[in-house]
Automatic annotation (TrEMBL):
GO biological process terms held by the UniProt record: regulation of gene expression
Stretches with biased composition (Basic and acidic residues): 67-79
Keywords: Nucleus, Repressor, Transcription, Transcription regulation
Transmembrane segments: none
Residues covered by region (Disordered): 39-79
GO CC terms of this entry: nucleoplasm
Predominant place of localization: nucleus
Organism whose genome encodes this protein: Balaenoptera physalus (Fin whale)
Key word rRNA processing present: no
Name of the molecule in the record: Breast cancer metastasis-suppressor 1-like protein
The keyword Nucleus appears for this protein: yes
Subcellular location: Nucleus
Length: 151
């Protein structure tokens, strides 16, 4: 019985030491993370007394006869008139409304049939025969990327 009592005592002491070591390990992990974070944040701070170190900028000089010219500004021309008013689309002299069947033509592609589902101030939503929905921006119609006509 003395052996069992001694065994239990030694076992409980060892378990207590293990528990303390695990607690210490967890607290050290936390404090070491805090310590690392603090060191990193200190490195990021700028010392107000240290001079700024900037890389020297190489300047190329041009002779007086060489003048840099600005590239021409590309102006987007509206090839087609297109706008939306009160839920209707005006495109190249014709009005289009919701529920109307149209033919959509894109350069280098076959024309597609579709039904207009929604007309917003800057886009037109349509539904294809296969059930998929897509949209055209009015700006795309103006630029000629797409064209539409009544079917």
């Amino acid at each position: 019985s003395e052996k069992l009592l001694l065994y239990d005592t030694v076992q409980s002491e060892l378990e207590e030491k293990i528990r303390r070591l695990e607690e210490d390990r967890h607290s050290i992990d936390i404090t070491s993370e805090l310590w690392n974070d603090e060191l990193q944040s200190r490195k990021k701070r700028k010392d107000p007394f240290s001079p700024d170190k900037k890389k020297p900028v190489a300047m190329a000089t041009l002779g007086p006869h060489r003048v840099k010219t600005e590239p021409p500004v590309k102006l987007e021309k509206h090839l087609h008139s297109a706008r939306s008013e009160e839920g209707r689309l005006y495109y190249d002299g014709e009005w289009y409304i919701r529920g109307q069947t149209i033919c959509i033509d894109k350069k280098d592609e076959c024309p597609t049939s579709a039904v207009i589902t929604t007309i917003n101030h800057d886009e037109v939503w349509f539904k294809r025969p296969d059930g998929s929905k897509s949209k055209l921006y009015i700006s795309q119609l103006q630029k000629g990327k797409y064209s539409i006509k009544h079917s």
